[in-house]
Amino acid sequence: MSRSHAQTPMNVLFLCTGNSARSIMAEAIMNRSGRGRFRAYSAGSMPTGVVNPHAIDLLEKMHHPTDGLRSKPWDEFARDQNPEAPELNFVFTVCDNAAGEVCPIWPGQPMTAHWGISDPAAVTGSEAEIGLAFADAYRQLNNRIGLLLNLPMASLDSLTLQQRLNDIGKTRDAPARTEG
Questions:
Q1: Distance between alpha carbon 103 and the CA centroid of its chain, in Å?
Q2: Within a domain: residue 108?
Q3: What SS3 state is found at 112?
Q4: Which residues, in sequence order, are bridge partners of residue 10?
Q5: In this structure, are residues 44 and 73 in contact, taking their beta carbons and an 8 Å threshold?
Q6: Cα 70 to Cα 51: distance, rounded to the nearest angstrom
Q7: SS3 of 160, please?
Q8: Active site residues
Q9: pTM of the model
Q10: Nearest CA to 61 among 116, 131, 146?
Q11: d(CA 147, CA 30)
Q12: What is the pLDDT at residue 179?
């Protein structure tokens, strides 16, 4: 990475189709955990326009700021659609649908990787089952973001960094369990 990491935060975009849960949670996690080193954004190819209330509730329980979180189109971050779009260092897809879509041209020639997470918003059942699905997604995102934050960015060449990003996306965490 050519930019001075100590001075300017690196910009990360998390993509999902609806931009209502997983990518929103990843944005909040990265902005808190990577503060000063990373600046996170999220967007969707077909945004719902509404952040899932279960995602907001979980983020608030985990003491993440939720003001300003919104479901938005990825066009806001595409240079050809928005000349003011931030230069991106990394773009991560967190859902399989978004990973298979043709993405816009991102400013800054970012490194990309797929970090697929099951969609907690698709889970039906009791409040406890839905809550568990959101907790699982949060935990997986938090773990993967933690792995990214612990990479020795300045000492990795581009090929090695790309391999590490891909490897992070393949990590499989044990699911959370209900008490009882």
A1: 16
A2: yes
A3: strand
A4: 38
A5: yes
A6: 6
A7: helix
A8: 16, 95, 103
A9: 0.89
A10: 131
A11: 11
A12: 46
